[in-house]
User: Fold these one by one.
Assistant:
Number 1:
Amino acid sequence: MQITKAVFTQSAAVLEKCPLTQLPEYAFIGRSNVGKSSLINMLTGKKGLAKTSGEPGKTRLINHFLINESWFIVDLPGYGYARASHKAREEWEKMVYSYFSGRKNLMNTFVLVDLRLEPQRIDLEFINWLGESEIPFVIVFTKADKLTKNQIVSNVSSYIARLKEEWDEVPPFLVSSATSGQGKHEILSHIDEANTFYNNQNI
Ligand code: GDP
């Protein structure tokens, strides 16, 4: 699939302000600074579409982007911002959890994880919560260009080993880089397949 059109449609502070739509959507989420905006810009081929944030944790909104006039990319607010207040964290939880429980057209969530870091508790907790809540997701390891091939293999293996402590079946994952474009084809193919499935169901 090629993305030929990508348009920002709206920012929502609450679920009720998200677009009323039957179109399928795909959420992107991860720790602040994980590279979410860069990945969305890379996927869409539009540099300034999602704002890459010098100041992590600043965007606390659900942003919808209409793609090819037929599906949405949803940029969810990042978590794990070190200086976030208790109140800000609570608000994040409320917003994100209501989004996940309320969006019937949500087909998949891409959970971004920085491949350079040791497995972080906050990511693992979020991934486990998605699993327990039966929300389909794919783990997207980011910033692969900052590592050698050997480091990629080694870091992915240790992450998978860590996940296996809690998961019988390892969740789907892929490796990406906003800089090199790695992972683009896999992510878009995944979305393409899910769109076909969704459209066939809704005929
Ligand atoms: P967000 O807060 O998750 O939206 O993260 P951003 O997209 O703003 O990225 C955070 C920082 O990481 C920025 O300085 C980006 O330039 C950098 N970055 C993001 N993705 C990549 C990547 O794939 N490779 C490299 N080398 N840097 C990246």
Number 2:
Amino acid sequence: MDYKRILTIQDISCVGQCSLTVALPIISACGIETSILPSAILSTHTAGFTGYTFRDLTDDMPAIRNHWLDQSLDFSAIYTGYLGSTKQITHVGNIFMSCGTYDCIKIVDPAMADNGKLYPGFDDAYVDAMKGLCGIADYIVPNLTEACLLADTEYKTDYDKAFIEGLLEKLVRLGCPNVIFTGVSYAPGKTGVVVYESGKYSYYEHDLLPNSCHGTGDIYSSAFVGALMRGKSAFDAAKIAADFAVECIKYTATLDNHWYGAAFEPVLSKLIESLT
Ligand code: PXL
């Protein structure tokens, strides 16, 4: 029986429905054993809350890796999300090189920016380090802002297919053969995901909802990883993740004042159904 254990490395934002509090339940719900490496513990995420606490766990990362090596623990896939510093990115690179099974799939969500702007605390050096990590990944899952930063291209919201394909070519030159490019819109009221897999483009389009939620990118990537690990093709996994993210955003819109994240928990059963 094919049994997979995945490792996900990102922060714990104690409140905020993002990073590990999203990845762990979603990938587990997909039926995959999910091990975690928390890179930091914050009281909340950094987008909209003020005065949050931040406990940096960077210096614990090499010791955790060494213990796993000691115990011969390895992972069928390693998936990274928000990472707090360039030093953490270096540690993650070392984990990629040493903690995977021979066929380990490495997925990097370069969670560092949105709506044309880097998240607080990140700079050009961080973007450069992220380019290196993307270069040793099998799949990267950028949004438009992250794709532009990684491709040294000016961000714009008004673009065409040629612009997106040009960005994809530059991204692939970083070294990663497969790109799951989220939030690509070619028509008013629509958005979608471009899947670039070993030289082939495909596109899954869906409705653009009037409300957006913080943390949807983390929900999307986690569902993509879960579906991919369940044996779905990259395109099918990208579609399943998009449909799930849309359901999460729709559900969140029914709640009063739920501004800090997307309420994915009540719709997890739909994700599970879509995997059968
Ligand atoms: O959702 C990405 C994310 C994860 N973790 C932390 C964040 C953010 C985005 O702002 O602040 C701590």
